[in-house]
Amino acid sequence: MRSRSLLLTLILALVSVAASAQFAQYTTPGSLATRGITLKERLENGMRDARWRLGGLRLEPQLGLRDVSYVDNVNPGRSPKVSDVTATGVAGLIGYMPAGRKTIFSAYAAPEYTWWDKLADRRGWRGRYGLGGFGFFNHLSLEVRATDVKQDQYPSFEVLTPATVDQQTGRASFELEVGAAISLFASVEEQRFNYQSLPQQGLELSGLDRTQRIAFGGVRYSLRNGLKVGVGVETASSSFKHSLRDRSNSGSGPLLDMQLQGGRTFLNLHVAYLTLKARQGADFPRYRNLTGRAQVGWKPHGAVSYTLYSSRDVVYGIETQAPYADSWLSGIGAEAPLGWRFDARLFVEAGSLDFGSSQGGGGGRRDNILNYGLNLTTKLRGSLSFGIHVIHTTIHSNDSGFNRSLTSIGSTLTIGSQGTPF
Which range marks the domain in which residue 407 is found? Predict the structure, then answer.
């Protein structure tokens, strides 16, 4: 019993400091409050449920209205207050092509049109596109994929004004078993970000355009109880496109990766202790801290499941003079079926943006974040699904001029796949 208590204490301590290894500028509220499934499960489920088959090719359509939402304040912290209604129409196709029993090729194309009622300048075409190859062999798993996602999102919790972001990603990874319980793993990923500025709102976002690279590798040991523990090294770098606000940096540090997929419990943790330094001529004071992500979930006897989670990131400043903020976000989520095919997910999370950490510490602006929300989803008939959400964000700053809040009420109606396989 004592060993279990010590393990739980260790996990909770790790959850309180871990964060996303991708240095996400913005973490969607509640996105970490649910148990995900593995890449292999997503691909196999997608092939199994595909509506059309042409020989070995499996095809799944995607049609629907996404993020049909009322936003009470499109530009929090700015005058005048503007409320608006938005919706995104999606029409896409996902393809799967198995090559034998252990290799899968997949591609998808999902053009989207985003409409705003009052903000006509933000209407336009977006979309998600991807191509990948995946192998799941007896002692080796590998993946190579490329994606291009252009969608509206918030630049960060500093600026809660939706902007169009084009994110192009290439990734290659593998894991090779070299013993009964030992494997080697490695991954390399490059992401290119391009932000659309909003001159009518006085927002210049091109200072966030950058190329970001993350690479890590190490050795993983699998315990008999299903827990997998990996240690290694992670390197990270960011190269900014424009010299006006160049925060280019690079660095490395030790890595800890833990995974457990049990029937009633799960653990996903990826944390690195990075030391990041400015490249020549860049404005980036040294960053030395933990980064990564952690999720711990359990399902006691009954229908309700719970998830504790945390993320910590380097978030680049937009309007503040600080080069970056040390950002963390921790929360708890609960999921339960409500009957008549309805599932509910509640979450509450808190965190902060500490801009003083990049200005020598001992003061500076600090924004405290509180998010909470509710998601309801249901399968209406066949592949027709419907969901509604209510999400509220409140940010209190030690500089009262930067206090802001945002409430979003929306729904989604889709036929076929609700997302992309990778």
Answer: 2-416
Say if CB 293 and CB 311 are below 8 A apart: yes
pTM assigned to the model: 0.90
The CATH number that applies at residue 178 is: 2.40.160
In a domain, 79, yes or no: yes
Q: Whose structure tokens read 């049609």? A: 63
Within a domain: residue 73? yes
Distances (CA, A) of 222 to 86, 177, 228, 258, 260: 47, 10, 4, 10, 10
Residue 422 is assigned to a structural domain of this protein: no
What's the number of domains the chain is made of? 1
Residue-level pLDDT, tens digit, the chain, 422 residues: 444 444 444 444 444 444 334 578 999 999 999 888 899 999 999 999 999 999 999 999 999 999 999 999 998 877 788 999 999 999 999 999 999 999 999 999 999 999 999 999 899 999 999 999 999 999 999 999 999 999 999 999 999 999 999 999 999 999 999 999 999 999 999 999 999 998 888 889 999 999 999 999 999 999 998 999 999 999 999 999 999 899 999 999 999 999 998 888 999 999 999 999 999 999 999 999 999 999 999 998 888 999 999 999 999 999 888 999 999 999 999 999 988 789 999 999 999 999 987 766 556 899 999 999 999 999 888 789 999 999 999 999 998 889 999 999 999 999 988 789 99
Q: Is residue 421 part of a domain?
A: no
Rounded Cα gap, residues 318 and 331, in angstroms? 25
Chain length of the chain = 422
For residue 108, give the nearest of 126, 125, 92 by alpha carbon. 92
- Burial tier of 98 (Cβ tally within 10 Å: 0-12, 13-18, 19+): middle
**150 within 8 A of 131, measured Cβ to Cβ:** no
